[in-house]
Amino acid sequence: MKKTVSGNEAIAYGALRAGVKVVSGYPGTPSTEVISSLLKMDLPGTYVEWSTNEKTAFEVAAGAALAGSRALCTMKMSGLNVCYDSLIGIAYSGCKGGLVVYVADDPGVTAGMCEQDTRGFALMSDMPMLEPCSVAETYELTKFAFELSEQIGGPVFVRLVTNNSQSHACIEMEERILPPESQPLPVRDTAKFTKAGAAICMTQHRDLIARLAKAEEIIAQQDRNRMRLGKKDGVGIISVGITNGYQNEALESLSEAGVDVSEISSLELIASIPFAKEKIETMISHCSTLLIAEELEGHIEKYVYMQAYKMGKQVKILGKEDGTYERIGEYDAQILRKGICKALDVALPECFADFKAAPEDNCTKRPIGFCAGCPHRGTYMGIEAGLKKAGLKKKDVLITGDIGCTILGISPPFEILWTELAMGASIPLAQGFAYSNIPSPIIATIGDSTFFHAGMTGLVNAVQHHINMTVVILDNGWTAMTGMQVNPGTVQSCQMGEWQQLDLIQVVKGLGISEENLYVVDPYDHLSVADAVKECLEKDGVKLILSRRECAIQAARRKVKYSPVKVIPEKCIMCRKCIHVSGCPAITLGENSIALDPSTCNNCGLCAQVCPVGAIEKQAE
């Protein structure tokens, strides 16, 4: 059948065609839609879950693969950092069933976090990394990844980037293959599945290196890396993954513009690791100039340099090392056109001279802010008011931030957070600041999903060591920034199947927060947050404020009704305090008074709480 799908959905359908038994992962743009799409399907025989973090997700998938089932684990690039401790262990041990790790990188930093090139992890792990170019190729290579994993007996990466994970195309797909209902008890083999001793580890390392060599042989036998040889001692292009598409588009458009590209040699790689040794050597022998097109790090380029040196071949290599390309940002056809023209020693045709202006020149500069009605707005309003009550200025109080919607506290009008590092890092960072005896109270903020992901261990550490700090968990009940996925604290009625909600209050109590140091507040009443902050700053030890109110978008979708907020125009003095304090996008300026946009206002009432003249009223809930 033909179906229009995204690159992420192609991963999902490819895994279903491969007979996947277990799919696990953690939400992270640009990879999220793989599991999101699967959870919408009726898939008897296949188990799909959002795990608490990527390490847990990988271990779930690895357990299934060790038992002989096919398993898929999904994440974004920064999630690979979280699971790597376990991933390298399974890379050494190997697995019985096909184990595929899908990771989405983000050149150009569309989705935030570090512009990490996860191919370095594949090199460090001696693991194959397949890199599809198109949506159709993503579907095909996902199926192949499971086959390759079982043939070599080890895990395999499939890597997309934002552009092809979010692209859509109509592709031909096959029916799903049902996985076996169960697997026999695995063979107990401590020499394979433990790391108990140097001899075991070195034997596993030797096996790992052999598995990568076998993957290179299989890819070569199936002739999946596409090579076309043009003029001898001419120009050649080596590209990989999504840059294969950019290369083809660039060559076609240059040809239409009158540039002779007919004799250019090309090597389009479907895997960055293992390196396509034989075909790369052929390109080095055949060409006098080689252009290497790969986003972010120059892994293939460095390999080409090394192979050319070993072969004693003088070849001009254009890429990152000579400054033709940068190690940052995403590529496109225009970047490839410039490189190709440089390699051919011809001028870029005038029609492409101003082909693409820098994105920042075409965008209105505006801060990223909270959605209308977001409960986090009330939390930060409350923290600021609490500091004022305690006689402190917010600029003098160090408040750490964490990943997710909560980090938007860095933006106006709040500008209250100082740091953002990694999932769960806000609490240990705050502990480190406390140890440094800085002249400031220490406050750490973290979202509920991030707390479940990686914040609990930091809280345990702070409690154990009796750190004088305040932790604020901004609990909106969802993993909101990546698209409203459920997390362990999501309301039970929205949990899937037999999934069970965890009571966050009981969790933090179980981690050592005493009753007298626990404050549960409603961010829609920002003064209750302020009172809690003031009290916490007057106490010793670890205090925790749980600021709880459901994400406004999800509450609206679930038809949760709040009492209306009304503007009384004749009372408004146009002081704009409602805007300056809350920054709510639902508030607009009229001629003589402010107005609330009924299409976006979620009736949180925070604007009414800061209006000094009562020009905004909210009825009691």
Explained architecture:
With 621 residues, the protein is α/β, with parallel strands linked by helices. Residues 357-364 have low confidence and may be disordered. It is globular and about 80 Å long. The protein contains 21 helices and 23 strands. Helix content is 38%, strand content 17%.
Summarize the structure.
The protein is of the alpha/beta class. Helix content is 38%, strand content 17%.
Strand order of the largest sheet: 3-2-4-5-7-6-12
Question: Biggest sheet, open or closed, and with what strands and sense?
Answer: 7 strands, mixed
State the oligomer: single chain
- Average of the residue pLDDT scores: 94
Low-confidence segments, given as residue ranges, are: 357-364
Rg from alpha-carbon coordinates: 27 Å
Distance between the termini: 51 Å
What's the shape? Answer: globular
Structural class estimated from helices and strands: alpha/beta
> Helix count?
21
Provide the helix percentage: 25-40%
Q: Which strand-content bin applies to the residues?
A: 15-25%
Q: How many strands appear in the DSSP assignment? A: 23
